[in-house]
Amino acid sequence: MRTVERAQRHENAGIALELLVHGVGGTTPQEMLDDPRTVRITGDDTAAVFRRADDVDAEDRPDDYRGRPVPEAYVWCNLTSGNSARALWLLLLPFMVVNLAHWMRPTTHDRARTVRLYGLLVRLAGLTLTVLLVAAACEVALDLAAWQCAGTRACTERNSWLGFLSPTVSDGGWWSHPGRRLALAAVVPAALTGLLWYLSRRTWSAYESQQPMSRDAEPDEESGGTSLGRPGFWYGRRLVARLRAAHTAAGLLTVAAAVGSAAARFDRGPGGPALLDTLGWLLDAALVCCAAVVVWVVCRRGRSENRLDQELDEHLVRRLPLAALVLLALALVYAGWDRPGWHSTGRLPGDPTFGAIAFFQGLLVIVLAVVAHVLHRTRPDPRAAMRGLGGPAVVMLACALGGVMSGGVAQRVADWLDGTGVSVAGPPVLLTWQASVIPPLLVLLLSLCGWLAWRAWLLRRTELGTVELDYAGEPRDPARTRRIAGTRAMATLTDRVPLFVAVTSTATLLLGAGALVGALTDETPSEAADGTYAFVHGAAETAQALGSWLIGFGFILFVTWGRRAYKDASARRTIGILWDVGTFWPRAAHPFAPPCYAERAVPDLTWRMATWTRAEDDRRLVISGHSQGSVLAAAAAWQLTPADRKRVALLTYGSPLERLYGRWFPAHFGPAALASLHAEVDCWRNLYRVTDPIGGPVRLPGSCTPTVDREALKDPLAYGRTPAHPLPAPILGHGDYQADPAFAQERQRLLKRLRPEVPAPRPDSDVPS
């Protein structure tokens, strides 16, 4: 009798929906739905849900969909890789990398203060990157162009466009005064700061202003202890606005300090005017006070996730950048005051500034590593990348990227302004030392790559026998076997990324410390090695020249790649994939990072899933996510209420949920979080291949039943030619999971398990079909 009643309830159930979410790189709704005729049913040109034209009125014809779901495709690729202008976001790469570090903290419990300290340290590291970038712009515009080149006859004659600034040309015009030259050149770094503010504000309005569904906060036990289920996780408007105001003010204050310090150095020298000296001290005091406020704003408040925080600190957001702008204007007036006898010689004192930034960044990385280790010890996770030290390592890489970009700009501009290399003093000594450590770092990384290639070759030899066992009974084809084994071996290199990052960040920290110590001598590497053994002096000169060329080449590569992506759709697609992976997380540590597409995509999916499952005709839903789409699907499922999650089935394939996100972001996608998701949705199945370099098993704890992971799919589907595959089957790797019959089998199983009222009882184990 109960069997008949259950069958009757299932027969009267509402229609089922399969919501498809694509992965990185994007695709078209026609490809996702396998139909050339698609219709947008909700959404806009940025992100939308599509159906086949024949399924638009599916809700009015439920009898036509007995036994099969209504497919829908959520297309979100325009959030990241649709506009060619977004290729210029490559220049914001250091900001994006340091923002990732905020989310890499280890899993912990009952360590709220330590967690807040971790976030504070990452935010301070992000602030130093802003100051470093603006300081590099000041070095180029103020020191190299306005101070050194415009003050030298040989350089001015080579660059005639600077002639009106030179005291040696045109009989020394009004702009030839050193302070006025600096005031005019300050427009460049100030405009850069304004551009970063504008981009941050504009991208927030365009991509991240969508509010999640309003609901009351849930206890942590209802969301598995992961913050991704909190109501305010995907809405960080208040924090981003505060950080944007603080970083904008920091950039303007950096420009003001660069202009004012040059004039104050002359005023405090012998014979300097007493009145201007007093004004200089007052300006310095105001700059220090405003800088202290900026640091306080960055330290004062972190993210508010337990509720949907729609407040905005309007007075702070408006007044702090305005105050910094007023101080910049006063500094420009102060520097432009007439000072007889002031001439530009040598270089501006940039070494103390860049040295202090480098020292503070190294200190932050070390302290952050200690904090991360303490957090990791409270709840050790053997799968966590670098034993919980992934965040500090990534912060170190972000600082190194900022150093390469700032040093590369300064070196290339110096070479461009002074082709002879003798008319200007060049960039600060510290930047030369930092460039000189790049060649040994590259040698170390190339050696590591060679070792990894050797390990992959050994694994390929082992996989040759495994491939023969997997396709036993097939006629042997050595070339085919080698290709399959090589693909499997190369796919394992993803699991070596933590080792590569660990070696790179450690070497960068040590070599950077050596460069900082060397710069204290106020000599370049070749000058410091002068008088030693000939081969030491020659090695120092070679490292200095090669490093200078490499650091400039690195920046040119960034610019060239961005320019090519602006014109080339295929290159733009490749860069879009980088943003798909790197900009999933909200801006929590740096407001000038590229915008977070998930703050639009996750609310979109949550609204669609909730409105479908809450319909009165007991509808069922399977959300099917590939690659990065599986991460969005999981995040959206966590945002649902517990009752709605019980009406949702999850199908993931090629998913990096555990292999990448679980290892690098253990506090949010660790074993406890994924186990809670498995327990809270009605059912979850995961498909993967050993040839896939991105996707992998979910690896839930053994106590979690039924199992999530299906046995690894065969790839290729057939070794040789068969009646089902008369032509050679391709090695699919990360793509085209729907081509495997297992995909349709698992989807059908999930649909059958869903019930309109109470979720069906779960079996003790699942046997793959």
3D structure, described in words:
The chain is mostly helical and 769 residues long. Among the domains are: 2-36 and 56-68 and 602-713 and 740-753, 3-Layer(aba) Sandwich (Rossmann fold), CATH 3.40.50; 202-212 and 232-340, no CATH class. Helix content is 56%, strand content 5%. The chain is built from 26 helices and seven strands. It has a seven-stranded mixed sheet, sandwiched between helices. The longest helix has 38 residues, at 112-149.
List the helices and strands and how they pair.
Elements: H1 2-11, E1 16-21, H2 29-33, E2 38-43, E3 48-52, E4 70-75, H3 93-102, H4 112-149, H5 153-158, H6 178-185, H7 187-207, H8 237-267, H9 274-300, H10 314-336, H11 351-378, H12 390-417, H13 429-436, H14 438-470, H15 478-491, H16 497-519, H17 525-528, H18 534-567, H19 569-582, H20 598-613, E5 620-626, H21 628-639, H22 642-645, E6 648-653, H23 657-664, H24 666-669, H25 671-680, E7 683-687, H26 741-753
Parallel strand pairs: 1-4, 1-5, 5-6, 6-7
Antiparallel strand pairs: 2-3, 3-4
Transmembrane segments: 117-137, 182-199, 245-266, 278-299, 320-337, 357-376, 388-410, 430-454, 497-520, 543-562
Protein name: Integral membrane protein
Keywords: Membrane, Transmembrane, Transmembrane helix
